[in-house]
Amino acid sequence: MTYQDSRNLAAAVEPYFRRNVTLATAVDLGWGVASALVAMGPIVTVLLQRLGAANALIALAPMMQTAGYALLQLPAIHLTRGLRAKKWVFISIHSCSLFWALGGWLILVYGQSHPRLLVWILPLTIGLYAAGLGLAMPMWGQLLPRFFPDRRRGLVSGVLMAASGIGGVVGGLLATWALGHWDFPRNFAYLFMAAGLTMAGSMALYPFIHETVPPGQVPPTESSLVRIVRGLWAGDRRLRRLTLVRYVSEFGAAGGTFLAVYALTRFALPDRVAGTFSLALCLGQAVGSLLVGRLGDRRGYRRVMGWGMICTAAALALALAVQRPEVMYAVFALVGIAMAADWVSYVNLLVEMSDEGTRGYYQALGATLALPPRLLGPVFWGWLGDRLGLPWVFAGALLLVATGWLLLVALVDDPRRPGQRVLRIAPGWRIYWR
What we know:
434 residues, mainly alpha, Growth Hormone, Chain: A, 20 helices, disordered C terminus
């Protein structure tokens, strides 16, 4: 797509902006409620611990979620490349959210009688849900400029993430109440069921969002998937450098998987506190997303990614120093801000690196390339935590996240400002800021 084509698409999308952003905000509000009910760190990991899983097995759930989300994205975008309109396929695939409801039913029926079996079955259902989401998400990078004008993309991303965060606050309150009101395992079972039904119900608004299909789009049908991916990887140095940064920082951030488990174990807290941790995370996400969205529009999304890494490092450092359980709420608020910054920055960086014909491939390739650190990180940190203790996990994770930030500012260009990395090595080995 040429620059003029992009301008024409933005002009065609503009009349539907208010309607689209209102409906999408309502959808994300519902998904925010549901996501907080089954938040991976504060809720799912605590459930697996209550079922008797060791840290290495607890890591199986985020591992399956990551694998399911990433493995099918490239095949999905290649198989759907000939679809001019993407919205209805995107909606249909989201029925995968009902796997959360299936997981809730399994907890209700087998939580008391076969807890060890559930330790293995629940990660599988979570992986199936994530696989469906992975089929749909490459289309989001293509739908984003078809739903919203480019010049307001950061604002929209921030508003949607804020709606998800506000919904998460509601979900966190509901999770706190449910975990304290019902006995185990009914409390977790009802959370899973409610999450699946809420996600599926929220998508009922999506048919009313208007998709503006660019005229004259010709998908790259002449090339195989391998050839297309190889060409993107070989031809874009920014993508290769960004991938290196993500490998280091994502592997470090995976150490935060065990923050809730650490807090509940160290301070002997009841299950309902996991719900309040989810509440703090979503509150941080809601506030942070509005800030990082505007920052991305004004100053670029590489800077947003850097601030996300700083928040992750601060959360890990605070967890290492914590002496009172109340401080953990600040830890989870920082994690929420970091999640908002990571999602807003990475999606939009890939959008800015690509054009209409390659955008879906960039989104899918980005998710696939992130698979190794996201898959192996929780397993490694879980293994290390079982042997040395979780404080060593947080210390090692902090070191890697800090290293990722240094690599980001040293190597990765902002697509809007090529050649203007923050840290540069000049002739004569002088290091200066620019």
